[in-house]
């Protein structure tokens, strides 16, 4: 666990996964004597089988700002003001913003059925961070895990009525609400810890449960007053708001003796009135199962998270996933809640990208991981931003703005993200196929060191069996050449139906083997049946025309077969997955369909036929139908060093007439960053075009013919496209620098080096650079790094740290600074530890 250092009453080490901020203020009246916790004010939705739900975690402050008047909270404490440039500060997200997204249909369109929101309670004041990449900025309680008052609403989020309105809006849409709660500890310097000191543990740690976790005031749940206070708090929020579930933070740090009464009939966590999912950050299935046995309806599946991260997330073997799903430590593994991302860990996208995997490939790997997550046992949960392939290296204390796992949600990216339609398709498949939510798990194939292929079935009496095939490799796998996957008794011979609409070549042969090909980094989810009719039973003359907010497709009926109806599908251009628009098939006489209320963008449509035997054709497609006026297409180009400049020559832009084809040798591009060689050009009103780049000083120098349908960066030195802006650093020479510091250590401690540049591990303490001791006198040694190759003339910031296992101690004071010499080798003598 990485540590952070905060500036009040000395230095406090705080685990990064506990989030938020803290501080000191004058004592004020706190809600200590709340009673009548069972008095009902709002009603939850009727009880449900949570295995059938799909959970979405919206970190409230970072999700949506619906009411700017509460952006600064009460604005009576330092650090209360909204500050978008501070990744540890308040960013304006609130209950009103969540409600607006609920009412707009955002969650329903994603296939989500339940929304998990951050804790809602009043937070302790912010303080100034004293180290790390955001030193000198206020660290606020934006994530809401550091409570000041357990019965008051945090004003940055709104008020109690705003929270009730959020829950009511969700229930009106058929969505359940899960509220995050913390019963292990109060916030740093919380007034409650001073007013009721007997309620908290003091002195040295006894274990993880009777211990002040990194300085946080730790409740003694064996104290009858504390037990009643915490029970009353939970009852208050459940009865006042009508929430349907609780996400219980740090459940493993609360005394085990507290939980039986909590989950008992009539208790605050009585599963007949409210569902609970507990967080125990451990990869030990037996430890997690302990809390299922103590009564928690669900627990987060950290072992599966780790296996998915290390396999699909990092090009690893799927054997790890197979091992987790075969584990028998759980009393009922179907009660687990699965996840790929959350606020405590590096995002799935960054796990791969930080290990050299290109963005597009990692997004395909995320697609595959989501597909696997939605088809295994348990309740799937999705962290906000996963649907747009959001990146994030870790918590905001240890990472600069723009690189954290808690960035502001970008809703504009959702309209074109293929993962949005993928999550919806997966959710629809779960809802339509009970075996995926309630079925038993049966392993059919695992890599065992061979092809990175994993297959399993979900079976439920009286329901169709579902088979999922996962290709974790970077190449197409031919199941037949591997001997086929035995599906006897699961799938009948013949064709199969892919439940999310993916085109595939799979079938079951006469030997009961599933054969066909599975593309690289792809998951196929199939059941028996679905043989398409002959290819000539497809519509003809398919065309599409877009307007400001809608698109119309027209077709001619096929000849040579009898059609009983049509289905129409759509997807954002570039997305791999179609979504069906026709909830029931159109009539056999239909020759057109209009899709309304579409966001601006480019769309592909597919129309299929249905025949009297119930079969659906493969369909025909029309692509690139433009809805609305595109803002324009911007392309970037990095010219080779020998080029004198950069022009763009473009033709056949869409929509037709938006721009005129350029004349040779094209139009002049604008230089972006001196020394980096990047240029850009924007074609207004264009969604796609053919193009090439040319050297205006020698027009025989040009790239191959290219095409682009979204913003992109083309590197003329490698002839490759990128969907995101590549790093741009004009410094090319390097200097080898050796770092040295004199420090005293305790038994088991070692000194490491970490800083703000990649070569110094970008403040990642887990991978900090080791140093070697010499010239020791007692516990004091001179610690020296190996020579580190740094960019010449670069200004860097860094610190020395001490590590012992997972414990990290930072130097005091501000970050050390150093300008790397221009050439050769150099050394930095840091003197004594600060």
TrEMBL record:
Any idea which GO molecular function terms this record carries?
Answer: hydrolase activity, acting on glycosyl bonds; metal ion binding; starch binding
According to the entry, every stretch annotated as the CBM20 domain falls at: 729-834
Organism's domain of life?
Bacteria
Q: Tell me, what is an example of a GO biological process annotation in this record?
A: carbohydrate metabolic process
Signal sequence coordinates: 1-20
Q: Which InterPro entries match?
A: Carb-bd-like_fold, CBM20, CBM26, FN3_dom, FN3_sf, GH, GH13_cat_dom, Ig-like_fold
**The keyword Signal belongs to this UniProt entry's keyword annotation:** yes
Task: Output the SMART domains linked to this UniProt entry.
Answer: Aamy, CBM_2, FN3
Which residue ranges does the record assign to the Fibronectin type-III domain?
533-632
One Pfam family, short name: fn3
Cofactor(s) for this protein?
Ca(2+)
Keywords tagged on the record: Calcium, Glycosidase, Hydrolase, Metal-binding, Signal
List membrane-spanning regions.
none
CDD domains xref list: FN3
* Homology family: Belongs to the glycosyl hydrolase 13 family.
Q: What name does UniProt use for this protein?
A: Glycosidase
Tell me the organism.
Deinococcus soli (ex Cha et al. 2016)
Ranked from the top, the taxonomy reads: Bacteria, Thermotogati, Deinococcota, Deinococci, Deinococcales
